[in-house]
Amino acid sequence: MSDSATFLAVFGDFEPASKGVDKLHELGVSDDQLNVISGIPVKAAILGRPSAITYVSRIALFGALLGMSLGIFLIYGIPYLYPLLVGGQPIFPVPQGIIITFEMTMLGLMGFAFIGMFVDSGFPSYTPKEYVPEISDGKIVVLFSCPSEEQNKFIDALKNAGAETVVPAEARHL
Amino acid sequence: MATYARPLAQPQPHAEEHEDPREHLMHDPRPRGEMNAMIMESMHVTSWKFWMVTGILTLIVITCVGYAWYYMIMQGLGVAGVNRPVFWGIFLVNVVFWIGISHAGTFISAILRVLKVESRRPFTRAAELMTTFGLVQAGFSVFMHMGRVWLSYWLFPIPNERRIWPDFHSPLMWDFMAITTYLLCSTMYLFLPLIPDLAMARDRTEGGWRKTFYSILSLGFRGTEGEWKNLTTAMNIFAFAIIPVMFSVHTIVSWDFAMAQRPGWSSTVFGPYFVIGALHSGMAAVAIVLFLLRSTMKNYKYFIRPEHFDTMGRLMLMVSMAWAYFYFNDYLVPWYGGGKWEKLIQEFTEKGPLAPLWYTMLICNIAVPWLILWNKNWRRTPWLLAITGLLINVGMWLERYIIIPEGLTINRMPFTWRLYVPHVEIALTIGLFALFMLLYMLASRLIPLVPVWEVQEGQEAHIIRKIGKAEVSTLSDLE
Hints:
The complex is a heterodimer of chains A (about 170) and B (about 475). Chain A has four helices and six strands. By secondary structure, chain A is of the alpha+beta class. Chain B is built from 18 helices and two strands. Chain B has helices at about 1-5, 30-45, 50-75, 90-115, 125-145, 170-190, 195-205, 210-215, 225-260, 270-295, 300-305, 305-335, 340-350, 355-370, 375-380, 380-410, 425-445, 450-460, and strands at about 460-465, 470-475. With about 475 residues, chain B is an all-alpha fold. Chains A and B meet through strand 2, helix 2 and helix 3 of A and helix 2, helix 6, helix 7, helix 9 and helix 18 of B.
C-alpha cells in the first residue's frame, strides 16, 4: 500500500476552487478524502460537494423535549411535593403551566442547539490542525490526501485549475 | 388639447432613481483581508480620549452603583423613595426599560436574519451586544429593588425549610424563568456568529494575552464545511426560536402589572403594548449606538452607512406608529368605560402635578419620530437619527415611570395617596447607564463589533445588474 500525503490547495475565489474540486474528483479523490475550508459558509452545491451532515437539529430537538419535561416537572412536580394554595387557584394550574413549560422548552431547544454545535464540531479543540491563516482573509482552501508518488500530478492539476499555492498540510497550533 | 400634451411627470427622473447602488456596503466590496485589518485596527487603536471617557465612566459606576448601593444596603431600603402606596419605584422602571432595550438586539438580528434583510449584516452584533448588556442592567435593577439582595436565592425554584416555596402562580416567578431563558439564549446567540470573527482575530494577533484570549474563545474553529454547517444550523434554530422567547419576555413583564387587580394596570392589551414599547425603545437605542460607533470607532464609516440609518429609521417609524396604536387602545377603553378609579388615574396623569411627564412622553414617542422619520434624507442623517433615538428613549423611560410609580400613586384607598419622590434611585440609575456604556466601550476593544464574515458573505451574494438603462442591485441566494 502506498503512502499518502496531505496538501492544502489555496484558491482566491469560488470558480477556481470549484474547478479544483472537479480535478480532484477526476484524479480519483473521493469526497470523503477532501475537505473545503473557507472564511464564509459556502453552499455545497457551489463547489459540487455533497452537503455536510449535521446532527445539531436532532440534538436541539432532544433538548426541547428535555426542557419540556423539566418544565412539566417544575409546574406539577414541585406543587405535588410542596402544595401551595394561592388566590383560590388550583394547585396544578394549566395556564401557568403553559408559560413555564414554554420557557423551559425553548431554553432546552436553544441550549442543546448550542451544545450540539460544540459536540458535532468537536469544539473546543486546541490540538494542532491543518490550517493557513489566509482562510480568514477570504481564501478558500481545499484539503486533500493523495498517494505520495503521484503528488506532483495533483499539484499541477490544481495549479492549472487556478490554485494560488499548493503546500503540504502541516498541523499547527491555532 | 394642451392639457393632454403635457407630460405626466417632469422629464428628470426622481432623485431617488439616481441613487448609485455602489453607495451600499454590499456593492462596495473590499478584499476580506482589508476589512479584517480595518476591524482589528479599530479594536487596537485607542486614543487618550477613549481612556479618559472610560475613566470617567468607571468613576461614575464606582460612585453611583458601588457606593450608592452599599449605602442603601447598609441603611436599608428606606433611603429609597419607595413607601406606601408606591412600593415599585424607579428600580422597576429601570427593569422594564432595560429589558425593553435588550429586545432590539434580538429583533434586529433574529427577525432580520429570518426575513433575510441584507442591510442587517454590519450591525447585528452591535445590536446583540445591547441585549446582553441591557439584561445585565435589568438584573442589577431587580437586585437593587430587592433590598436584601443576599436573599435573592429565594427567587430560585428551590423549596426551603421556611416554607417559602417557589410559587408558579406568581407572575414574578414566570418573569424569573423568562428573563433567565432570554439572558442565557441571547448570550449564546451573541457568541455563535462571533466564533468565526474570533478565529479571524486569533489569526491576526501575534502573541500576548489577546492571542490566548482569542485562541481560547474561537474554540479551534477553522471554517471546515462541517463546522459551517453546524454553526449556520444552530444560528437558524436560534433565529427562529428566540423570537417567540423575546415576545414572551416582555409579555410576561407586562403581566407583572396586568395580573394585579389594579386600576390602570389590569389590561388585556398590556402584553402586546409592552412588546411594542420594548421594540420602540430598543430600536431607538440601536440608532444611538450605531451613531456612536460610526463617530468614534476607526474605519466604521465604511461599515455603517446612511443606508443602515435609513433602515433603522423606517423600522423606528413603523414601530412608533404601532406603539401609538396600542397606547390609544390602552387609553380609550378605560376612558370610554368611565370607571371611577380609572378616570381618576387618567385625570391625575393628564392634569396632575406630573402631567408634564405625560405630554413629554407623547411628544417624544409620537410627535418627534413622526415629524422626522418620514423624510428619507433626514433618516439618512446619522446625528439626527441618534437625537430622535435619544428622545424616544426619554419618552419610553417616562412611559414606564407613568405606568409604575405614578400609576401606584392613585389607588382605591385615597387616604394612602402619596407622590413618589426618588432619592438614592437617581444615583443608581445614572450609575446603570454609565455601566452600560462602560461595558460597551470595553467590549469594543475586545471583540469585533462588525461581523466581517457576514459582511463578506453578503457582498459575495450581491451583484449590480444592468436592466435597460438602469443599474439595479441583484441578490443571489448563497445561504
